[in-house]
Amino acid sequence: MLDVRPILLVNGVLLSLLGLAMLLPALVDLNAGHPDWKVFITACGITLFVGVSMALTNWGHAGGLSVQQAFLLTTSAWVLCTAFGALPFRFSEIGLDYTDAFFEAMSGLTTTGSTVVQHLGDAPPGILLWRALLQWLGGIGIIIMAIVILPMLQVGGMQIFRLESSDTSEKILPRATQIAGSIAAVYVIVSVACMICYAVAGMPAFDAMTHAMTTIATGGFSTSDDSLGVFDNIWIDYTAVLFMILGSLPFVLYLQVLRGKPRPLLVDTQVRWFLAIALFLVLTLTVYQMWAGINGGWQALRYASFNVVSIMTGTGYATSDYGAWGPFAVMAFFCMMFVGGCAGSTSCGIKIFRFQVAHAAVWSHAKRMVHPHGVFSAKYNGRVITDDVTSSVMSFFFLFFVCFAILAISLSAFGLDSLTALSAAGSAIANVGPGLGKIVGPSGTFASLPDGAKWLLSLGMLLGRLELFTVLVLFAPNFWRA
């Protein structure tokens, strides 16, 4: 029988922290004289009551988690936090129904960035801060999950980043918890640095704070319908590019830098691949804009670098409607949705290391075909890739695109056109945010989609953020009989 008491305890603690976080937008609205502060106080009270009750009634049952418990904890934590995080959206002045509120909260906590909120410039400051806070909390949650939980669960090849040679949390958690605390400190420091840089570049203080949160989290929620394009400031654009990249690199390597060991960050092949792919795409889209007469010179480089990094990292900011750049650009940005950043970062998508493992495995297989008697080993960062990692990565690729296809076909059943269905499915499962086309593109929102499509996309965002297997394994009958 599965012991759910440790799961309820952890979920209770997380809900309590989420409830306390609601006090910040309450104070902002109170200071601005906006009545929504009462909404946040009420939502805080409800969330704290449930969270504290769950924690107290299960107190004393903490300890090492089994693999089965870890799977259930990861999914339940994201769903519960989303369900309660939606309360301020439901009852605030913006007046979303619960479907839209849940969609917005899920988009926030999964750092996707898709939105159903229109006229953001008229939204209360508390709601704008809450959207940013959800993404910021989701960002640090993803990093810690990638360090503590996913390697233990051997999801999608993440076991390659296992901290210790153990499949149970009794040995992993003590060291991982210590590292997670250090990374949380780094996360705060980088967020503050981003906020300062935005302010120096000319962004108002409140906007600098909220955009810093969503930039480091590679989430993309903004305070304006025009995203960062509303500022039309080249220094703000390049500040965003810098910190989106920083948010997409492994935070564990930042700890090494702070300890006076920058070499691991400089020689890590995952980092090199990420930067090389980003540079290639930026140069390609820059040349394309100049060749097609869309933008010229430094302007082309500015728009290419910002939008390429934004989409590739899954942030989803926009400074221009790249959907109007022509068919080549549309297809290029569509493919970029799936790339993602590095494992152990706040970014999403397939992740660079999986492309590296797949490339190494295919190249090794090709060499064995040419030299049947040769011995060739696929390697990652100088280490031999084991068969279980290769199998796990290949399974992830297969499942990722199967889920994408099913999601796209299901969305088309709601009457969405092909471009909208495909791009919305891709942006959800890759946690990018904006899709393509007039409806869900950079200049649109997801507000007009049917409720059923929004629930499907919420599931897609959850699947993409939790690396597919973590959620889908719960639907296997053998999981509950284990």
Task: Describe the fold and architecture.
By secondary structure, the protein is mostly helical. It has a domain at about 365-480. The chain has helices at about 5-20, 25-30, 35-55, 65-85, 85-90, 100-110, 125-150, 150-155, 170-200, 205-215, 235-245, 250-260, 265, 270-290, 295-310, 325-335, 350-370, 385-410, 420-430, 435-440, 450-465, 470, 475-480, and strands at about 380, 385. A two-stranded antiparallel sheet has the order 1-2. It is globular. It starts with a helix and ends with a helix. The model is unreliable at about 165-175 (pLDDT under 50).
Structural class: mainly alpha
**Tally of contiguous helical segments:** 23
Helix content: 55-70%
Spans with pLDDT under 50 lasting ≥5 residues?
163-173
- N-to-C SSE string, H for helix and E for strand: HHHHHHHHHHHHHHHHHEEHHHHHH
Rg from alpha-carbon coordinates: 22 Å
Counting DSSP E segments of at least 2 residues, the number of strands comes to 2
Which percent range describes the beta-strand content? under 5%
Give the neighbour order of strands across the main sheet: 1-2
Rounded mean pLDDT is 89
Largest sheet: 2 strands, antiparallel
Shape: globular
Gap from first CA to last CA? 9 Å
